Structure formats: C-alpha cells, structure tokens
Amino acid sequence: MKKSLTYFTAIVLLLSWFLFGSKKLSWFLKIQAEKSSEPCEFQTIFNFGDSNSDTGSMSAAFYPASLPYGETFFHEGAGRSSDGRLIIDFIAKHLGLPMLSAYINSIGTTYRHGANFAAGSSTIMRQNKNYFDGGSPFTLEIQIGQFIQFKSRTGKFFTKENESSFGKHFPKPEDFSKAIYTFDIGQNDMTDVISKMGKEDSHVLISNIVELFSKQVQSLYFFGAKTFWIHNTGPIGCLPLARPIHNAENNQTKVAGYLDQNGCVNLTNDLAKEFNKKLKDEVVKLRAQFLNASLIYVDMFSAKYELFSNANKSGFVDPSKICCGYHEDGYHVFCGSKQTINGTEIVPGSCEDPSKYISWDGVHYTEAANQWIANRIVDGSFSDPPLPISQSCQITH
Ligand SMILES: *[C@@H]1O[C@H](CO)[C@@H](O)[C@H](O)[C@H]1NC(C)=O
Ligand SMILES: *[C@@H]1O[C@H](CO)[C@@H](O)[C@H](O)[C@H]1NC(C)=O
Ligand SMILES: *[C@@H]1O[C@H](CO)[C@@H](O)[C@H](O)[C@H]1NC(C)=O
Ligand SMILES: *[C@@H]1O[C@H](CO)[C@@H](O)[C@H](O)[C@H]1NC(C)=O
Ligand SMILES: *[C@@H]1O[C@H](CO)[C@@H](O)[C@H](O)[C@H]1NC(C)=O
Ligand SMILES: *[C@@H]1O[C@H](CO)[C@@H](O)[C@H](O)[C@H]1NC(C)=O
Asked: Organism's domain of life (predicted)?
C-alpha cells in the first residue's frame, strides 16, 4: 500500500510539473481567477480530527457516550464529547448541510454529504497507548486511510444504472474534488509532548508532528482534495483541567509566570503556539507547492482565547468552572463516571444551565461555547487568507 502510494505520488508530481512547468500555467491561473468570485456551494464535507469534532467514532468503536453527554440538543448520548453540538455541526449547518455521520458508525447514518473520520483522543503521531489508557487507534494516518477506502469503495459501487438509489446515500465520484476537507487535530499530540518534557526535545517533537500532518494533507491532495480548512490547536492551558484550581497535585503552580493574566497555564499555551506557528509555516509551504488547491489556516487558538478572556462579557460564568465532573482535592471523577471517595459515591451530575459554561467536562467545550466559536470563525475573521468558509474553495495565491 505504501509502495503504490509513492508510485502514485511520483506520477502526480510528474503530471503537475508538466502542467505548471509550461505555458499552460497562465491559462490555468486565468481559469481559476474567473472562477474565484463564485460561492463554492459545497455539497460534501470530509472531516478529520479528535474529540473536538468526533460525531460518533469512538462511541461506535468502543463504549457509547451516554447522558449527561448530549443532554442539551440530542437529549441522549450522541457520540459527542459535549452536552450538545460541536463546532463541526455548526459548520455543517452554516453550509446548509446535515450533520456528519461518523464513518465507522453503521446505524442511522447517511454519507450523502460526506463523512466524519475524526475520533476522540486521536493524534497525528502514533501513540503507545491503547483505548483503556486514553489512547485512540485512529491516528490521522489511519483516518486518511479510511477516507481513501471510503472514496475507492463508493467509486466502485457507483454506476449510472444505480445512480438514483446509490446517490441518496453516498457521494458521487465527482463530489470528492468539490468537497471541503476540514481538520482539527493536534491537541492530544501537545498533551503527549508535555508528558515527554525533560525526556525528549519538545521543539523536535513538535516539528516532527507538523511534518507528519503535512504528509497526510499531501496524501489527500494526491487523492483529489482541493479545499482544505485547517484549524490550529486551541489554548489548552486555559482548559479547566489544566488549571491549578482543578489540578492540585501539580506542584509547579507556585512558580512565577506559571499562569497568564487570564489564569491559563503559560507553558502549555506556549507549546500550542509553537505547534501553531510551525503548522502555519507548513500550510504556506503547501500553498506554494499546490497551486491548484486552497489551503485555509484557521486561528482557533485566538478565537478560543478570546472566549476565555471575555467570558463574563459574553454571558459565561468564570471560565475555570466545569459543568459536569468532580475535580477537587486531587480527586478526579470525570463526567459520565462514578467513584467512591471516603465512603461516599460521587456521580457527577451536570450544572443547572450548561449554556452559561464554556467548559462541559473540564476538557471539552459546551454546545454554547462551540456555537460562540463557530459563529466567529465561519466568516473568515480568523482565517488566513481571510475567506469565509462558504468561499474557501477560492484560490487566492
Ligand atoms: C486543477 O484543477 C482543475 C479544475 O478542477 C483540474 O481540471 C485539473 O486536473 C487540476 N490539476 C491538477 C494538477 O490537479
Ligand atoms: C450498483 O451497481 C453495481 C454494479 O451492478 C453493484 O455492484 C452495486 O451493488 C449497486 N449498488 C447499489 C447501491 O445498488
Ligand atoms: C515538583 O515535583 C518533582 C518531583 O515530584 C520535583 O522534581 C520538582 O522539583 C518539583 N518542583 C517544584 C517547583 O517544587
Ligand atoms: C508567560 O510567558 C510569556 C512568554 O513565554 C511571558 O512573556 C509572560 O511574562 C509569562 N506570563 C507571566 C504571567 O509570567
Ligand atoms: C459577570 O460579572 C458580574 C460582576 O462581577 C456578575 O454580577 C455577573 O453575575 C457575571 N456574569 C456571569 C454570567 O457570571
Ligand atoms: C476524605 O477524608 C480525608 C481524611 O478525613 C479528608 O482529608 C479529605 O478531605 C476527604 N475527601 C473528600 C473528597 O471528602
């Protein structure tokens, strides 16, 4: 499989040298410029990532998420790490498309408008952790492999004769190059980098992670993807479980400069910023390489940081508060689980009004926060180039 991919890559490279390394270049650019004022009218979304955009993968593969997860919008566990919808759900809604089904979920699904390969806990780099240690087998590389399989199998079963029945459930071959490919991954890689600090060089680790990410984007391009909407990673040092108030066992707390003016863990956010800077540089490089593709870098870090720093003004309670979960005195009872402490069984319920909280369970955002963030990013305010998502197929470079 690896071998045939390399072979394929070489052919595509040769082909693009032929196209771009000749007079056809100006002809191409002209076609692109004429197309560029049209809205993209995306019919299909393919998403890759971790729990920030998992709409049912880990629930289908392992144990289903159950209430209070999902309580706000779905009124049942809906495979999402939130009380309700995720940013990807609001993106789909904004584009006039239904919510994405997880690729590996087989019941009650539709793939007519795309598929979601994101899975909670997933990383870009392979991990040495199984599901029970908080790992995910669905690294970005596996997610891209699943997509390639999805594409080749839908192509195999599609024929003109059964277009009307097949087309109700799956994308048509021509939909793949017109689709938007969205990414939100890297957060769990940063957690991994933190755990290796002092043992491995974090700068080298982060560079390697970004390089692997780039390889996967290139692989999708060679399989026909044209529009890439890439979220950077959020301010993970602002998540309540990173903060000393819920992390009493962290003895670094009293070190000067440990927290920033918003109570976020400085070191953790600095790592996220380093990842984001390297990611942005890589996206810029890919643009120069793939003149025929649109690569949008979305600064989720800033959008989310703005929410943490303006929580009160935006109608949210203290951003260090957690809606569901017990995290005090060095005890951690996660939302959805239970534990006996000093003879008392603790089963964390959820807060009275999740719409007032930024954090659902200490790590994941509430539906209200997700909606707040989605509203800010879809119009292009945090994008480079500053295109709204509905026009992100335009090639501006
Ligand atoms: C570039 O895009 C055009 C229009 O979608 C397509 O016809 C052409 O094959 C693409 N070229 C490459 C090298 O991918
Ligand atoms: C479409 O037709 C092909 C070839 O006859 C067949 O293999 C496939 O199962 C059909 N798919 C559907 C959804 O009917
Ligand atoms: C925190 O604890 C570790 C080992 O448990 C120790 O090596 C380190 O010096 C401590 N740091 C501070 C600031 O006390
Ligand atoms: C947080 O880190 C930044 C850069 O690493 C530094 O400039 C700033 O002073 C730190 N914040 C605090 C509160 O010390
Ligand atoms: C915002 O701050 C004000 C003043 O401290 C307080 O009265 C109000 O309850 C806060 N809003 C929320 C949603 O917590
Ligand atoms: C459990 O008991 C110990 C000892 O009495 C006490 O220090 C601790 O605060 C208690 N913890 C909880 C969560 O009740």
From this structure: Eukaryota
pLDDT in tens, 332-357: 999 999 999 999 999 999 999 999 99
Q: Which domain holds residue 286?
A: 43-321+364-391
Q: Is the CB of 321 under 6 A from ligand 5?
A: no
Residues with CB under 6 A from ligand 6: 329, 331, 341-342
The first and second tokens of residue 229, run together, are 């909407």
β-strands 45-49, 114-116 pairing: parallel
Q: Report the pLDDT value the prediction gives residue 253, as an integer from 0 to 100.
A: 67
pLDDT one-digit tens code per residue, 266-317: 999 999 999 999 999 999 999 999 999 999 999 999 999 999 999 999 999 9
Say if residues 120 and 53 touch (Cβ distance below 8 Å): no
Domain contains 351: no
Based on the residue annotation, tell me whether 309 is a catalytic residue of this protein: no
- Which of 293, 227, 237 is CA-nearest to residue 260? 237
- Domain membership of residue 386 (yes or no) is yes
Say yes or no to pLDDT of 31 above 70: no
Q: Record the tokens describing residue 68, joined without a space.
A: 């209070």
State whether 48 and 157 are in the same domain: yes
Residue 172 shares a structural domain with residue 228: yes
Instruction: Extract the tokens encoding 158.
Output: 């599609």
